[in-house]
Amino acid sequence: MTTHDITIDTIDTTIAGGGIVLLDFWAAWCGPCRRFAPVFEGAAAANPDIAFGKVDTEDQQQLAAAFRITSIPTLMAFRDGILIFSQPGALGPAQLDSLIAGIRALDMDDVRRQVARQRAIRDAS
């Protein structure tokens, strides 16, 4: 599997599609982004059941702003439509593999309970 270019028009359907979604926020002028690109592509090839998307922050400035991207590269991970990881900085292959393994191992019923609790607390205040 390869990566897909994500735009403001495709972001919602990409995340709502379920399963695991990894997003790489990047720009062509960014050296660390260029170094991370083959790591991200390699993980996409090794994990065809995961949606790998790339968001060009120069072309998709509105989308980058909506996700509050202040540093690139930034990697975000969603599972079943829930944001579960967001971190700036390039990862190495072993780090990305470890992250993917951790995402796969999550108990999503527990994650959904935690999200519901956080929403209830926020709504009560």
Automatic annotation (TrEMBL):
<dbReference type="InterPro" id="IPR017937">
    <property type="entry name" value="Thioredoxin_CS"/>
</dbReference>
<dbReference type="InterPro" id="IPR013766">
    <property type="entry name" value="Thioredoxin_domain"/>
</dbReference>
<dbReference type="Pfam" id="PF00085">
    <property type="entry name" value="Thioredoxin"/>
</dbReference>
<protein>
    <submittedName>
        <fullName>Thioredoxin-2</fullName>
    </submittedName>
</protein>
<dbReference type="GO" id="GO:0015035">
    <property type="term" value="F:protein-disulfide reductase activity"/>
</dbReference>
<feature type="domain" description="Thioredoxin">
    <location>
        <begin position="1"/>
        <end position="105"/>
    </location>
</feature>
<dbReference type="GO" id="GO:0005829">
    <property type="term" value="C:cytosol"/>
</dbReference>
<keyword id="KW-1015">Disulfide bond</keyword>
<dbReference type="InterPro" id="IPR036249">
    <property type="entry name" value="Thioredoxin-like_sf"/>
</dbReference>
